[in-house]
Amino acid sequence: MEGHATGTRRSPAQLYALIFGAVLTIAGIIGFFYNSEFTSDKSVRDAVFGILDVNGWHNMVHILTGLLGLVVASSYSSARGYALGFGFVYIIVAVWGFIIGSGDSILSIVPVNTEDNILHLLIGIAGIAAGMATPAVADPTTRSVST
Question: Are 36 and 59 in contact (CB under 8 A)?
Fold first, then answer.
C-alpha cells in the first residue's frame, strides 16, 4: 500500500492503530448518545445499536484508547507496541468478561455483555496479529508515515 509522496507504506501495526484508533474514537463518541452516565449502577446502561452495553466509563475507555491509536499510528515502533499491548489487554478484557458473565461490569464500572466480549476478543486477536506481522526492526521502505 503506498503512503504519501515519500513512497513509504504503513506497517500492519500502523494500519491497525489507525483503523482501530478511528473506529474506537467514533464508537466512544456515538456511545455518549446512548448513555453518558458515569455510574456503576447496573440498571443505568444502554446498548449501542441495541447490541453493545455502554455507559460513560465504557465510552471514555473507547475514546482514550482510540485517540492513543491515532497518536501512535504514524510511528512504526509505537504502533507495533500499541498493537501488541492493546491486543493483549483486549484479550484479557474479553476473557474477564466471559468469566464474569454477560450483563456484569469489569472493575464494577465498565458494562459488558456477550457481544462486547466477542468484539473485544476479535479486536485483541487483530492487534496481536498486526503486531506480530510487523517486524521489530523496520524495513527501510516501511517507516514513520505522516498522517
Answer: yes
Query: What does the angle CA 102 – CA 106 – CA 107 come to, to the nearest 5 degrees?
Result: 150
Please tell me whether residue 105 adopts helix, strand or coil conformation.
strand
Residue 145 and residue 10 in contact, taking contact as beta carbons nearer than 8 Å: yes
Of 120, 53, 55, the closest CA to residue 88 belongs to 120
How far is the C-alpha of 75 from the C-alpha of 18, rounded, in Å?
11
User: pLDDT category, 101, cuts 50, 70, 90?
Assistant: confident
Locate the DSSP E strands across the chain: 46-48, 52-54, 104-106, 110-112
Question: What is the three-class DSSP state of 98?
Answer: helix
Q: Is 39 exposed, middle or buried (0-12, 13-18, 19+ CB in 10 A)?
A: middle
Q: What is the DSSP letter of 49?
A: T
Cα 4 to chain centroid, rounded: 25
pTM of the model: 0.81
DSSP 37: -
